[in-house]
Amino acid sequence: MNPKHAARRKATVHLLCGLPGSGKTTWARRLAAECSAVVLNHDERMIARHGPNPPESEFTRFAAAVTEELWREAAGEIAHGRDVILDWGFWTRAERDDARRRGGEIGAACVFYRMRCADDVARRRTLERTAAGTRTAFEINGAAWDLFRAKFEEPTADEGAVEIE
Ligand SMILES: Nc1ncnc2c1ncn2[C@@H]1O[C@H](COP(=O)(O)OP(=O)(O)O)[C@@H](O)[C@H]1O
Ligand SMILES: [Mg+2]
Fold it and tell me: From the CA atom positions of the chain, what is the Rg in Å?
């Protein structure tokens, strides 16, 4: 490729959509190696700031602050022409629409990936991870996983998500 064209390639924000245990973080690492991207993991940053079991009453406020922090970092990477991977879950259409808008505002192309994983597999992996007490992921029990499942809004065809099996 002509280096001038390479330099002008639009940096990309890769957004991972999937429930806990669906394989987002595992796959993010693989994608990061392929496209020399920086991974920004919302849960890991939350745990670094507030521990693996933040108080329910503060969760939304803490999460919003981490979201702002990570978007600032994403903007910095994109401005330098580097791809970023947002390993965040993006369970609702509103969150995905907001991310597409913000990606556009920082001058990035946006690609959503839908992690395809059977519910029973993702749930079992999550419970195993919680039991192992890794402290790199939130402590999610079965009831919480089921609640998240109920909140999850499947991306619709018009969102053009890339399916990851
Ligand atoms: N494709 C896969 N095949 C088998 N195990 C996987 C696969 N992807 C992830 N795992 C395992 O499942 C668990 C959860 O994966 P993770 O990537 O942390 O999911 P998420 O980030 O979506 O919560 C981890 O123990 C990981 O090793
Ligand atoms: Mg993860």
Answer: 16
